[in-house]
Amino acid sequence: QVQLVESGGGLVQAGKSLRLSCTASGSIGGISGMGWYRQAPGKQRDLVATITRGGDTNYANSVKGRFTISRDNAKNTVNLQMNSLEPEDTAVYYCNAMLRLSGDLRWSSYWGQGTQVTVSS
Length: 121
What we know:
Blueprint: E1 3-7, E2 10-13, E3 18-25, E4 28-39, E5 46-51, E6 57-59, E7 67-72, E8 77-82, E9 91-101, E10 108-111, E11 115-120
Parallel strand pairs: 2-11
Antiparallel strand pairs: 1-3, 3-8, 4-5, 4-9, 5-6, 7-8, 9-10, 9-11
């Protein structure tokens, strides 16, 4: 019933910027935290940034000062502005949302399908 769809990935040169967006849709009762995670080939999926519904943010040390997470609660959208991209940022980026279905009291994590970000040197 719930779908998280990412957009904005692509191929960019080092030092450039990219903006990712993720929109949750479906029978949603409420969304708490949202965030971005990434997974490079052969590595685990790691946290990039999270944001609460009230706007409190948390970033991985590797992206602090370069990435900015934001959200639009009215649109059920979370964004990730990525500046000063480095080849090490190359990964599949996944959107995550902690939400509950409409009429359901249980909170669960939902994931998007992922979007590829490739940074060339």
